[in-house]
Amino acid sequence: MPQKLEELSIVKGFKQGKVRELYDLGDTMLIVTSDRISAFDVVFDDLIPDKGKILNRISAHFFKSTTDIVPNHFISDDIADYPKELQPFEEQLKGRSMLVKKTRVIPFECIVRGYISGSAWSEYRRSNTVGGMMIAEELQESQKFPKPLFTPSTKAETGHDINISYRDMLQHMDEWIGRFIKDRSLELYSYAHDLLLKEGIILADTKFEFGVIGGDIFLIDECLTPDSSRFWEVDSYQIGKSPNSFDKQYIRDFLTQSGWDKNPPAPALPEEIINKTRDKYLVAHKIITGKELS
Q: Is 118 within 8 Å of 94 (Cβ atoms)?
């Protein structure tokens, strides 16, 4: 038996992303989510135990529950449904993988912001804009926008993604495609925001990615995870401050305070930071799925 998945004859191609490993199976793909973590677009050597399983299960949860908003690439996360050649790798794949339809990726991240924080807050303080759009209201950090904003970015293979305007994004695609992914992103955000608010989580912002099969557009990659979203604790939310979070903002805050210049190589993460990050991801998993991580 081959020692690695990428050596299987069924695998037509292999690609390792910042967090995920992608196995091209022809018309389908196998996505395996690792325990790697990236911050400020830099991948760290330190792993967050169980992070891959948490992200995979949250994504699967939302892929299954949002098909009435937009179709997605999800086929199954049950190894029994995978091609037989993958069955011997059950121990490696269980809980952290999913079989999906293969799409042509639209190379933009569709970011939706319901509250002003992170890079949006920095831009607003600098230029009174968010995603290149002028903001008429006087806002404080963490304040809710009158309505959610669509602020796309480029999707970089390496290095930093670049925030751009919706108008700039439209220069690279048909207008109907741009309008579709914008509208579906806003709809997905509103659905998840209202759902999670009832559970004590504020979805401050999140990002989506889309791909194309023929003339159809599908939601792909991950969906509403602590890696792709900013989850705040309702009980600690206060305008003007950064609320307690259930995402990797905890690591970002640590790195900012450490003085790291946000360029490779990534610094080592203290054990306390690793453990607390894992705990935050586990809380998000339990609240969102209603289940403990088995």
A: no
